Amino acid sequence: QVQLVESGGGLVQAGGSLRLSCAASGRTFSSVPMGWFRQAPGKEREFVAAITRSGGTTYYADSVKGRFTISRDNAKNTVYLQMNSLKPEDTAVYYCAARGTYYSGNYDSERHYDYWGQGTQVTVSS
After folding, report:
1. Which of 7, 18, 50, 56 has its CA 20 to 30 A from that of 119?
2. 34, 92 Cβ separation under 8 angstroms
């Protein structure tokens, strides 16, 4: 059974940092792109960041560029999201996602991801 399990969420003050982890099991994801999405209350889920299978290229939403960093450790089948300079508008449930097969492009579209975690809550207080 394929599982993506996020961890590292919590409550933090504005300007603080959190590091999210997404541990995959059931198969290896080292050959496919992975990403992070988020959903704030009353809003649709949106793209946050994505990383290619090698980790050599990363993509970010404009709202997090320069503050968030996505990385991966293929030996551990894990992807990370380092979040710095957090703002109250970053408050959301954060989801990890992975493609089932390799192909490039459309990294910011949730329709192009096959596996999803259950989400982890991030709350940023002002």
Report:
1. 56
2. no
Q: CA 109 → CA 22, 26, 35, 37, distances in Å?
A: 19, 24, 10, 9
Mean pLDDT throughout 39-46?
97
Q: Going by DSSP bridges, is the β-strand pair 120-125/92-98 parallel, antiparallel, or unpaired?
A: antiparallel
Distance CA 113, CA 122 (A): 22
Residue 64: is it exposed, middle or buried by C-beta count within 10 angstroms (0-12/13-18/19+)?
A: buried
Read off the tokens for 65: 């560029």
* pLDDT 10s digits, 57-99: 999 999 999 999 999 999 999 999 999 999 999 999 999 999 9
Per the document, the length of the chain is 126
Query: What is the pairing mode between strands 3-7 and 10-13?
Result: unpaired
What tokens appear for 111 in the block?
A: 């329709």
Q: What is the DSSP string of 21-55?
A: EEEEESS--TTS-EEEEEE-TTS--EEEEEE-TTS
